[in-house]
């Protein structure tokens, strides 16, 4: 790729076409942005047009948060067998811990936000409470009443809530007029490291 007339050449070590880093991004956020971008670039072209880089980051972070949630559920199930605790209460424990973890990592690594933490956390709290009431308590309790096993009920609810939370994060909690990392895929393959 050539440098446009009057444009600054890419800094040494920069992969041409890679996501731009934002002021305030630390090394971990820069690494995560590059990692998710490389994962997206490995997708077939038709899928690249459908999947934003932030969705890949969200899937990684919230997937690990879900594993944390499931680990807590399993711990409760093993440590307190025949607990008699309603599913909604057990879901609440894991969900609360996993939600704080996911917010912190999505803000820092995925959406790379440096804006008003109070405003963002207030919006996130609304998203998490509405998600909790609709999908965790409501839908989870319905599945419990239908005698769906605990782990199956939690996985089913998680699939639905995942889509809901991602859309709310992208469109409302961390909105931007334009996300450079989520632009249409570039026509060219990533080039060599710029000199």
- What is the alpha-carbon Rg in Å? 20 Å
Q: Topology as H/E string?
A: HHHHHH
Tally of DSSP helical segments: 6
The general outline is elongated
The residue ranges in which pLDDT falls below 50 over 5 or more consecutive positions are 1-7, 183-195
Commentary on this structure:
With about 200 residues, the protein is an all-alpha fold. It has a domain at about 55-175. The protein is built from 6 helices and no strands. The protein has helices spanning about 25-40, 45-50, 55-80, 85-110, 115-145, 150-175. It starts with about 25 loop residues before the first helix and ends in a 22-residue tail after the last helix. Residues about 1-5 and about 185-195 have low confidence and may be disordered. Keywords: Membrane, Transmembrane, Transmembrane helix. Pfam families: GtrA_DPMS_TM. It is a multi-pass membrane protein.
Summarize the structure.
With about 200 residues, the chain is mostly helical. The chain contains six helices and no strands.
Layout of helices and strands:
Elements (H helix, E strand, L loop, with lengths): L26 H15 L3 H4 L4 H27 L7 H24 L6 H29 L4 H24 L22
Helix pairs in contact: 1-3, 3-4, 3-6, 4-5, 5-6
State the main characteristics:
195 residues; mainly alpha; 6 helices; elongated; disordered C terminus; GtrA_DPMS_TM; transmembrane helix; GtrA family protein; transmembrane; membrane
